[in-house]
Amino acid sequence: MVDTMPSIVDTITEHIHPFVPVPEKIDLLVEKLNNEYLWLSDEYRNEGRMYQILSHYFAAPDCKVYEWGDFDAVFIVSNIVPGWKADFSFKLVNPGVWSSRFVRECKEFLTGVMSEFKLFRIATSTPDARVMKMARMVGFEPEGTHYRAFGWNGTYYDDTLLCIFKED
User: What's the pTM?
Assistant: First the structure.
């Protein structure tokens, strides 16, 4: 498939670059998504479904996948509608990469994404207070809550919606 979306430069920051979907990394990503607390809701946590989702992310023209360092964090920019909006996901954030540099480069990355695609808004959601804290540190603001919208091992959590909104 030919990618018709604009493309962010190969390395937008010192540590963030396009994710190369080699089988070993895909398998590790599937394993982590299956097992890491609050990373993926119950309805998606089976290997067949996760491989389908990841295949879409890597093939879809409206989706870009990036990583920090060598698989220390994965960022997914999806549902990109140039000139309007996109969704953003933080995955696999290794606690060892948390630093002011990480926050600064994430802000730079998100600014670059919004500029490249001429976005008014970029949104994310999470049931995880740790991810919510990280999202707020890089510029997302709370926008609302989907109550009991995220299931993990049969327990339901509120999913907090966050957004970076650029005024005209």
Answer: 0.86
